[in-house]
Specification:
This protein is an alpha+beta fold. It has two domains: 7-83, no CATH class; 88-245, Transferase(Phosphotransferase) domain 1 (Transferase(Phosphotransferase), domain 1, Orthogonal Bundle), CATH 1.10.510. It contains nine helices and nine strands. The strands form three sheets. A four-stranded antiparallel β-sheet has the order 1-2-5-4, covered by helices on one side. Strands 6-7-8 form a three-stranded antiparallel β-sheet. A hairpin with a 3-residue loop joins β4 (72-75) and β5. α5 (160-178) runs antiparallel to α6 (181-195) and α5 (160-178) packs across α7.
Length: 246
């Protein structure tokens, strides 16, 4: 949940490597508790980590799982230092008119790869929990995407297909909210085709029904307050495209 900033982030430059220093703010327990109540009532299927140690351990272990060979260090009881990965955030590329279909396809392939890994501390496939455009980098030189910022986890009762479908859904809501209707349609089809996991796409299709209650507020936030009619039209379009892919 990008709107709830429970950590400070600063770039640390060393001679051999640049690191992002992330530190849990003091007094964030009440903020996280309130945020988790909203996340539960809005049927978000995710939660933030009330325990600083749990967040720190998850961030470090996930970074090491997804990006082996890159530096990930503990910094005291409340902080981590993670190697700055190459590339630019997808939301910035989109805002600057530089996002391309191959970049979106690379994001889908990286999510698919990561979804095939086993979560640290749990014998189940990994999932992100907040896979919006700000949490995906694209590296032009390497022609690949990188996933970053591991500050939430999915509810334990969800199966792997449901968790992976939620990652796709968060990405697609953000994509529609940040782009024109025509852009979003083109990028979404490329994204879904590149991900290409039938069971996950089926779970995503089941998720695409009009939101109710606080769920509506959550989806509005994730789609950058897209008007209701446009949000419903987007859900219908995605259902149609998924039917064509099945």
């Amino acid at each position: 949940m990008d709107a709830v900033r429970v950590n400070t982030v600063a770039l640390e430059v060393r001679q051999d490597v640049s690191l992002w220093h992330k530190q849990r703010r003091l007094g964030m327990g009440a903020v996280i508790a309130a945020g988790n109540v909203f996340l539960r009532l809005s049927r978000s299927h995710i939660r933030m980590f009330p325990s600083t140690k749990s967040w720190r351990d998850w961030e470090l272990s996930t970074f090491a799982l997804l990006h082996p060979g890159h530096t990930a260090e503990t910094r005291g009881a409340r902080a981590v230092a993670l190697e700055a990965l190459p590339g630019e955030r997808l939301d910035l590329l989109l805002a600057q008119g530089r996002l391309t279909t191959p970049m979106v396809e690379a994001a889908a392939r990286e999510l698919h790869r990561a979804h095939g890994l086993t979560s640290p501390h749990a014998s189940r496939p990994w999932s992100h929990g907040d896979a919006h455009l700000k949490n995906v980098l694209y590296d032009e030189a390497g022609q690949r995407a990188w996933l970053i910022d591991f500050e939430t986890e999915h509810d334990a009762h969800l199966n792997s297909d449901e968790r992976h479908a939620d990652d796709l859904f968060v990405f697609l809501l953000d994509l529609r909210g940040c782009s024109t209707r025509e852009q979003a349609r083109s990028f979404a089809m490329a994204f879904l085709r590149a991900y290409s996991e039938p069971c996950v796409l089926k779970a995503l299709q089941a998720r695409l029904r009009p939101p109710r209650g606080l769920e509506r507020a959550l989806w509005k936030s994730r789609s950058h307050h897209l008007p209701d009619a446009q949000l419903i039209e987007w859900l219908e379009h995605l259902r149609h495209e998924l039917t064509l892919l099945s």
